[in-house]
Give the backbone structure.
Amino acid sequence: MRKTSVYLDDADARRLAHLAEEEGVSQASLLRRAIRTYVPEPRGARSFALDGAGEGPGGSVADVDDSRLFEGFGE
């Protein structure tokens, strides 16, 4: 077993002490059980606005003629 420190605000520390006393177990035991039973919330599908933006010929913008880069500006 490994020792670790956990920083809790006053309200969480009181709640942990109360729950441990209520169940008749140590605070450490209660924390270990909580960690073992923790189930993360699903993150959901991730959508990226720029997905596919890199598709193209793969050349560098530095190789594009300046006149083409400014097409459509000011219209």
Notes: The helical segments are 10-23, 27-37, 66-69. Residues 7-39 form one domain. The longest helix spans residues 10-23. The chain has a mean pLDDT of 87.
